[in-house]
Structure formats: C-alpha cells, structure tokens
Write a structure and sequence with these properties.
Layout (H helix, E strand, L loop, with lengths): L1 H6 L3 E2 L2 E9 L3 E8 L4 E8 L7 H15 L9 E7 L2 E7 L3 E3 L10 H20 L2 E2 L8 E4 L4 E3 L6 E2 L37 H4 L6 H17 L9 H10 L15 H10 L11 H17 L20 E4 L3 E2 L7 H16 L5 E2 L2 H4 L9 H8 L3 E10 L2 E10 L5 E10 L3 H15 L6 H7 L7 H14 L4 H17 L4 H16 L5 H18 L4 H13 L4 H14 L4 H13 L3 H14 L4 H13 L3 H14 L4 H13 L3 H14 L4 H13 L3 H14 L7 H11 L2 H14 L20 H10 L4
Helix pairs in contact: 3-5, 3-8, 5-7, 7-8, 8-12, 9-12, 9-14, 14-15, 14-16, 15-16, 16-17, 16-18, 17-18, 18-19, 18-20, 19-20, 20-21, 21-22, 22-23, 22-24, 23-24, 24-25, 24-26, 25-26, 26-27, 26-28, 27-28, 28-29, 29-30
Length: about 775
C-alpha cells in the first residue's frame, strides 16, 4: 500500500502514474498517462522484493521482447520498455475489463465461451507462427475487455524459437507467487501447475501443442466451473495431469454443454501430444464450426440428443471467385490473383469436392455479379469470395463462403496480419472451408491441405508474380514469368514449385513456337528435373517433365508414365488433364483423347484454351460438324480469340468450304497480331482455294521473317502442300525433323498433310519419329 501511494502521481520517463491496477508475485501494474501521445497505458514494474534478482529481470525483458514481436488484436500490445531511476518498466496497452480468473468457478454460457476461445486460439496461432510458445496459458493471463475482446497477457515464460534476434539462451526463473505457481531453475518445469501440459510437468522440450493443452484446461474450467486437474498439494495436481483424465463432462456438471465441445476439449487434453490438436488453426476450426452451428441451431446439447437435427444438403462443389484487389494499386494485382489461384489448387486436391479451375472463375474477374448467380451459372453448391488489401507490410483479407441454394453465409472471416503471414492465412482459409463442408480427411489429406512449397514469404510473392504473368499466355508474359520464377528459386533454392513454373514457361514458349524447340524444351526438362529433385510428389512437376519427354524427346512411354503420375497426385490439375488429352491424340487414341479433354472441360468449363482443345481433338478426329459447334461456342465466350478462329478455318478448309475458311483465317491473323502459325494456315488455305499468288506472298514474308526469328519449318511445309509443291513440302518437313519440331508429333493425324501420305519420304519420316501410320 505504501509503495502504491508513493508511485501514484510520479512521472516515470514520459509517463505519469495515476493509480494502481493490480499486483502479483512478480509485478505491479499501474494505470498511467503517456504525456507525449496523450493516451492511457498500463505500466508494469517488477515488485521490489524481486527487482534485484537477475533471473526475474530476464523474465521481465523476455515478456517485453516476445510480446513486441507480435501484432495481433487478441494479444496485449507492448508499446515500450524502459528504465527510469533504477525502475525497469513495460508500457502496455491499457485494458478495461477482467481476467478469466475472475470468471472461472462457474460454467460460462456456451456462446460466450466459444467467442472467447476462438479469439484466444487465434492469438496463440499468431504467436506460434512467429515461433513463440507462451508456456503459461492460464485464466489469469487471459483478459476480457468490457466489450468482449479477449487479450492474451504475460509472455514472460515464452519460449522463442526460429528468430535469432529473439532467442533466449536459458530459462532461469525462480519460484514466485502462490502455491499454484512452480517456477524453478533452468531445465525444470515452468508455468502454473494446474494448467501445465504433461510434457511440461516432465521437463521435456516444449512446442506449440503444450499451449493447446493448457488452453484445453482453461476451456474445461470455463465449461464446467471446475478445474480439469486438482489436488490438495502441488504434487497431487502434477500426478493428476500425468495419470488421470478430467471428470467426464456431463449434464450434471453443465446441462447445457454440447457433445461437440466435449469432444474438442477432450482432444485438446490428450496426454499424448501426437494425438492432441497439432496446430492452433485446427482447434480454431473446430471451435468456429461449433460456433456457426450454434448460431444456426444445428448443434445438439448433451441432454438433447433425441432432438431432430436440421441437415444441409451436401456441398460437393465450389467456385473460388477472383479475390478483389481492394488496395486499388494495380501492382498488387498479382497478390489477389495469386491467393485465389493457390486456394483453388489446394482445395481442388480435397476428396469429393469439385472445384472450378482458375481459368474458368477468372472469366468473372472485375464483373459485379451476385455470387449466388455465378454459382448457379457454374452449377456449384458454394461460392467463396474475398478481397485483399496490402498496405505498409500488412495484409488484410476478408472472405465469405456462400451457400448457392439459399444464399446464406456458411462461413466468413477477416484476417489482419503481416504480409509474411500469407501462408498461415491461406492454410486457415483452406482448413476452415474443409471443416465447414464437413469433409472427412485422412491424415495424408490433412497433411496435403497444409503443405507449403516454401517457407520464404518473399520467394512465394515472387512465385505469385511469375504465375500472374504466365497466365497472360503471351511471349512477354512467359518471359516475365521466367524472370520472377528464377528470382524465387534464388531466394529459396529448394522451391520446387517455382522450378516447375520455369519449366512450364519454356514448354509454352516452345509449344507456341516463340523459341526454337531445342532451346525451349531442353530448358523445360532441366527445370522440371530440378523440381522433382526437391519434391517428387509435386503433381505440377511431373506434368512439366512429361511435356518435353513427349513434345521434344519423343519418349512416348516415359511421357505417359509422368502424366499418369501427375494425375495420381493431383487428379484435378487442369494442365495435366489438358496436356495428357493432347498426348493421347498424338498417340492415335482419338476416342480416349476426346473423352479426356471433355473431362477437363467439366473441371474448367469457361477456359478458352480447354474449349478450343475440345474443338482441336474433334478436328483431328475428323468429326468436323461437332468441331464447328464446339468452336462457335468458344467464340461466344470470346469473339476475338485467335486460336478458335484458326482451328475453325482448318475445319472449313478440310470441308472444302474455302471462302469461310479464308474468312476465319484472316480473323485469326488479325486477332493474333500476325502470328506466323496463323499466317501459314491462311496461306495453305489460299493455295488450296486456287489463290496461289496470295499464298506465295505470305510464304515469302514468312521466309524473310525466319531470318530474324524462329519460324517453324512445319508451317512452311503446310504452305507448300497448299500450293501443290510436295517435294518442297517434304524438304521443309526434313528441316523440321532436324529442328526436332514438336509439330511433327501431329504429322500422322494432321488432315492438312493428307496430300503427302502416299509419298515414300513421308512414310519414312513418320517411321523415324516413331509414330503409328
């Protein structure tokens, strides 16, 4: 009391002490005014009886360092640490309310318990993500404001890992406080006895799961009004923690207790930490789901198991709409697009859930439409929307999951974290959705759901920038993508997914004839092998390797093995499904190819390239009427899509409808800004339509262009076929063979080469490539 009176009214540094708020075995806390910023703060000082002890000072400083490393709405903010007149202090956020130690002793209403618990677990997740284990979770260290905001206090016992600037060499702490605190020297058990984990009691190395056990004990006490582990002495309590389970929750303890909460608490209190919740996000997912069920009337109390339960229809399909770039800065577009794509890829791997592919949902980007309407158009049961704001190193993401059938919100959340926490946010969203949709996951599927391809946030952002440019499907886009992917692997040399991005970029530079085949496909293969060196279970990398094996090396068996492995690892991966369908087509397995590409279309119904690929397969299958119908549907999605006009021109040419073929060919050339591929196709059509002068003009133009950049000899061969110059056409095909042109894998099925099929040189060439005649 004397000390309190002496402190009141004093100025400590730039803080004016106003009144005493409370005290404990180690510290005294005062309300004070920050005279610089004119705000109230809580000043915490070491008690006089321990202030001279080095180990107490070490703990005090550890609390400041650990708390200041965290920026989370449910963790008490530390503003400052200082010393004045020999008094060491911590200036903290001033809170009005009470700790849970004032609340325990009677059961807390379930709604309030869940609200507090979700907030606390979110705070623990933020701390654990930063490598900080609290190690002293108990009611006295959880504060609830008058507005119901929970705040985790006192990181004085925190074990800080991973961050070298915050590492603690020893845990030297001496016993303080009442009988329930047991703070002993280095290597001994720490924390408050009744809330210790079994491994903490045994003095073992602790990780984040210890905090989850401790909070499980807090939840038990909030739910039942009695301690999970009790005894007349400290040793009796320790024995209870190690050898006894809490009294089973029952109607006698709390008639309103729900079975799901009982299960959650029991799992948190598992003595074997391998059977306990492994991450805070997993515990929060279960708590949040129960909270939603409570609000919707779906949860069943222990004593009410006989009551009928409302059942939603099974949600087996989902569309993740492009997250909105709410910052208004176009330079951040890669981030909102990248987060969307990453969530799609992660969720698509979940069992019994059909997820719309990225190229389909991105058709809705920038369109102000009701999610329910979009969901009906895509024939999915649920739609996930979101917005992303990035400012000054902070990332704010808002999400909402909507039931398409009734338009109600199934789940929603807002995340305000550091940009480096982007992995954690994506993990949490995926976990929340799988929990909300009640997907039954195996351990391996849960592991896959939380899989991270890199722990380096900067490398991940570079990867997202690479995919953003790659998805433009232009020469410049692929080149820019390679630059960013390369920077990503320089930041993280083991980043397999970024190597796969490099490989895919070179595959498409070669496939679209922007680069010579030997340059493009060899680099693609090298990058794909590098990706598999670091992660042999990466579906994307197996597809990246299959492509050059098929398109350039002509190793048909090996290529199919890689495609099948990719689809085994990621059955819904759109690129694997698309490219494997084209592989089947080049192997002469037309019916399999058409079936496979239509299966890809189900996953990606609005993708232009997939829709065109269906028409492409039908063209090679010589099902021309069906091809026309499909290509016209594609042009309804985008009337200026050059590839659709190009293939439609090929179809009309082989139906001898030359004027229509020329018209489509001219549209493809104009829409593609003069693509050599499409110019050559138009020239061949002109030759077959008896407009040989026009054909020769284009041939001369492309021959001159070939002196400046790569122009596939296969294109020139087609023009000679159209003009009727078979020998020159075969000469061009020989040059294409020397180039190892991937266009030759279509040679045996290409209707445009029909006039050469009786030529012995043609048959010999097909045989050398290893294709069926």
């Amino acid at each position: 009391m004397v000390e309190s009176m002496l402190m009141t009214g004093q100025s400590i540094s730039h803080y004016r002490v106003l009144e005493k708020l409370g005290c404990g075995g180690m510290g005294v806390v005062y309300k004070a005014e920050d005279t610089r910023l004119h705000r109230f703060v809580a000043l915490k000082f070491l008690s006089e009886n321990v202030a001279s002890m080095p180990e107490a000072l070490a703990r005090f400083q550890r609390e400041a360092h650990a708390s200041s490393a965290l920026n989370h709405p449910n963790i008490c903010t530390v503003h400052d640490i200082g010393e004045d007149g020999g008094k060491v202090f911590i200036a903290m956020e001033h809170l009005e309310g009470e700790t849970l130690s004032r609340i325990v002793g009677r059961p807390v209403e379930l709604e309030r318990l869940l609200d507090i618990s979700v907030q606390v677990v979110d705070a623990l997740d933020a701390a654990h993500t930063q490598g900080i284990v609290h190690r002293d979770i108990k009611p006295a260290n959880i504060f609830v404001t008058h507005r119901g905001h929970a705040k985790v206090l006192d990181f004085g016992l925190a074990k800080i890992k991973f961050r070298k600037d915050l590492s603690v060499d020893s845990d030297t702490v001496t016993r303080f406080g009442d009988e329930r605190e047991c703070l002993t020297s280095s290597g001994d058990v720490l924390g408050t006895i009744a809330y210790m984990s079994p491994e903490q009691v045994r003095g073992e190395e602790l990780d984040s799961r210890s905090d989850l056990f401790s909070f499980g004990a807090v939840m038990y006490e909030l739910a039942t009004g009695r301690a999970a582990f009790s005894g007349n002495t400290a040793w009796a309590i320790l024995d209870s923690i190690l050898n006894s389970d809490p009294v089973t929750s029952s109607p006698q303890l709390n008639p309103r207790l729900h079975r799901e909460l009982e299960r959650i608490i029991s799992k948190a209190l598992m003595k074997d930490r391998e059977l306990r919740y492994q991450k805070a996000v997993d515990l929060r997912t279960d708590l949040s789901r129960l909270q939603r069920e409570m609000q919707s009337g779906l949860a069943i109390p222990v004593g009410a198991a006989h009551r009928p339960q409302r059942v939603h229809k099974i949600i087996d399909s989902l569309a993740v709409l492009p997250f909105e770039n709410a910052s208004g800065d176009l330079d951040n577009e890669y981030l909102s697009d990248g987060i969307t794509g990453s969530l799609i890829n992660t969720l698509a791997a979940l069992p019994k859930l059909r997820v719309m592919a990225q190229s389909t949902v991105f058709r809705y980007k920038g369109r102000k439409m009701d999610p329910q309407t979009i969901g009906r158009e895509l024939s999915v049961r649920a739609v996930l929307t979101g917005n992303v704001t990035q400012r000054s190193g902070c990332l704010v993401i808002g999400t909402e999951l909507v039931d398409v059938a009734i338009g109600s919100q199934l789940w929603g959340a807002k995340y305000n974290r550091k940009l480096g926490d982007i992995f954690v946010i994506q993990d949490e969203i995926s976990s929340e959705i799988s929990g909300t949709l009640r997907l039954q996951l195996t351990q391996s599927q849960k592991k896959q759901l939380g899989k991270r391809h890199t722990e380096n946030a900067e490398a991940y952002q570079l990867y997202l920038k690479g995919r953003y440019h790659w998805n433009k499907w232009t020469y410049e886009g692929f080149g820019k993508g390679i630059e960013y992917f390369q920077q990503a692997v320089e930041m993280d040399p083991g980043y397999a997914l970024a190597y796969s991005g490099i490989a895919d970029s070179y595959v498409l530079l070669g496939w679209n004839s922007y680069l010579a085949p030997k340059d493009a496909f060899r680099k693609a293969k090298s990058a794909a092998l590098k990706a598999l060196q670091f992660d042999d279970n990466l579906a994307e990398a197996h597809t990246s390797l299959a492509a050059p094996l098929w398109l350039h090396d002509w190793q048909w068996v090996e290529a199919e093995t890689e495609f099948k492995r990719s689809l085994q690892l990621g059955h819904a991966y759109p690129t694997a499904n698309h490219w494997y369908a084209e592989y089947l087509m080049t192997m002469g397995r037309q019916e399999e190819s058409i079936a496979k590409i239509k299966q890809s279309q189900e996953l990606d119904p609005l993708s232009l390239i997939i829709n065109v690929a269906v028409g492409w397969s039908l063209y090679f299958g010589r099902r021309y009427d069906e091809a026309i119908e499909q290509l016209r549907k594609t042009l309804e999605l985008d009337p200026n899509y050059p590839v659709a006009h190009w293939i439609l021109g090929l179809v009309y040419r082989n139906m001898s409808r030359y004027e229509m073929a020329i018209g489509e060919g001219e549209k493809s050339v104009a829409a593609s800004a003069g693509s050599p591929l499409m110019q050559a196709a138009l020239a061949q059509t002109c030759g077959m339509a008896n407009k040989k002068n026009e054909a020769r003009i284009i041939l001369e133009r492309l021959t001159m262009l070939a002196k400046q950049q790569y122009v596939a000899s296969y294109f020139l061969a087609g023009i000679h076929v159209g003009i009727g110059e078979n020998d020159q056409a075969l000469d061009c095909l020989e040059r294409a063979y020397e180039e190892k042109s991937h266009w030759l894998i279509y040679l045996h099925i290409d209707p445009g080469m029909d006039n050469l099929r009786s030529e012995p040189r043609f048959k010999d060439l097909v045989s050398r490539i290893g294709l069926p005649l």
